[in-house]
Amino acid sequence: MQFTYRTAVFASIGILSVTLLLAGCGKKQAPAGPPQGPPEVGVVTVQPQRVTLTTELSGRTSPQHIAEVRPQVGGIIQKRLFTEGSDVKAGQALYQIDPATYQAAFASARASEARAEANLIPARLKEERYKDLVKIKAVSQQDYDDAYALLKQTEADVALTKAALETARINLTYTRITAPISGRIGRSTITDGALVTAGQPTALATIQQLDSMYVDVTQSSSDMIRLKQNLANGVLKKSDSTLVKLLMEDGSPYPLTGTLKFSEVTVDQSTGSVTLRAVFPNPRQALLPGMFVRAVLVEGVNENAILIPQRGVTRNPKGDAMVMTVGAEEKVEPRPIKVVRTVGDSWLVSDGLKTGDRVILEGLQKARPGTPVTAVPFGSAPAAAPAPAGAQQPATVKTEKK
Q1: Which of 24, 106, 208, 234 has the highest local Cβ count within 10 Å?
Q2: Which string of b and e fits 44-57 if b means at least 16 CB within 10 Å?
Q3: 187 and 91 both lie in a single domain
Q4: d(C-alpha 166, C-alpha 139), whole Å
């Protein structure tokens, strides 16, 4: 009985194994997909274009006119006559120095002038009388010479006292300190009652004209030499390089255009750069002295510039720039190039590419040198993959209106 049970178990296992084997052999293999074609890559075709090349140079603003107010005579400041931070006009009174001693000096000089003029009257009359008497030998020639010398000495005394009077008048005028130019005046460095001296090193206040501003920027001497060479070789055409645009500290553009005035003729030995100066109108006083700005200057115009987006340019182990192109046989070809500078988000290429070359911008990870690819315009929609054979098409449901 025991033997019969084992035999039944083994028979059941064998039947189950045979059944599973037959089921596996009867299942159909899934059909293999169609062979994949060459990978698609997005390319851009090289086309020369006209490009105006500009350069950005950093610099600082400074007022076109600036004047430091200093006293020309010494004394005690009686009163400050302006409001700090206000606009003042040329000739407007700013400070009043105690004029007492200068008024006394002016009065003394005027009195000296009056005495000298009084002494001149008898000296002139005596010279006139002796001039007639010497002709008839009534007086000696020596007496006339003495009278004439006295007249000239008295006239010199009058001239000397007049000069002293004018000096005293000027010094009295200087006790009222006025604005040398029109503009915005800053803070006062002194208060009422302070003692000032003529020609002191510390300015009482500073006036700055803000209607127009200087922008001083620096350019390396090597860039200036390169620019001159490109203009001489015809790579660039000279354009209206006197107009300058300005970018503020936050990167926003300044609404008004400036004019390039001059370029320094001496290279700074410490920095190897040259200073350029431009003038910008500032009617709303948006530009303040000492602001950091960036000036955009026009270098020239390249009539046949080749621009390649930066995403398509790579570097080899030597650091040289190169691009991947699609050759005549639709195969990937590496191409070394020479780049000059960036223009926006593109590289300006000077050598290595010509009109009609197709540069790969998208799909670079699939663009191995020598492999065939399918070139499509960069930015176009990718082609839809073909449906595998035997795949069931989606059903179309029609809806009927009742």
Answers
A1: 106
A2: bebeeeebebeeeb
A3: yes
A4: 40
**Mean pLDDT value across residues 118-129:** 94
- Same domain as 350, residue 258: no
Question: In this structure, is residue 314 part of a structural domain?
Answer: yes
Count the neighbouring beta carbons within 10 Å of the beta carbon of residue 342.
11
- Please say if the pLDDT value at position 385 is more than 70: no
Q: What is the DSSP string of 120-162?
A: HHHHHHHHHHHHHHGGGTSS-HHHHHHHHHHHHHHHHHHHHHH
Q: pTM of the prediction?
A: 0.65
Q: In Å, how far are 59, 242, 276, 338 from 224, measured between CA atoms?
A: 17, 15, 11, 20
Q: CA-to-CA distance for 306 and 346, rounded, in angstroms?
A: 9
Tell me, what's the pLDDT at 390?
A: 45
In a domain, 236, yes or no: yes
Residue with tokens 């009084």: 118
Domain count for the chain: 4
Q: Does residue 100 register a pLDDT over 90?
A: yes
Is residue 259 located within the same domain as residue 325?
A: no
CATH of residue 217's domain is 2.40.30.170
By residue range, what is the domain housing residue 191? 71-98+175-202
User: For position 325, which CATH number holds?
Assistant: 2.40.420.20
Residues 241, 192 share a domain: no
Indicate if the pLDDT at residue 150 is higher than 90: yes
Residues 163 and 112 both lie in one domain: yes
Asked whether residue 283 falls in the same domain as residue 321, the answer is no
Does residue 107 sit in the same domain as residue 191? no
What is the SS3 assignment for 398?
coil
325 with 361, same domain: the answer is: yes
* Contact assessment for residue 14 and residue 349, using Cβ atoms and an 8 Å cutoff: no
E strand or H helix at 226, and its extent? helix 221-233
Give φ, ψ of 153 to 5 degrees: -65, -40
> Could you tell me the two tokens for 194?
């302070």
Q: What is the 3-state secondary structure (H, E, C) of 178-196?
A: ECCCCEEECCCCCCCCCEE
Q: How far apart are CA 170 and CA 148, in angstroms?
A: 33
**89 within some domain:** yes
In one letter, which amino acid is 292? Answer: F
CA torsion sign, 246 to 249 to 251 to 255?
negative
With respect to residue 158, please indicate whether it lies within any of the assigned structural domains. yes
Check: CB of residue 337 under 8 Å from CB of residue 346.
no
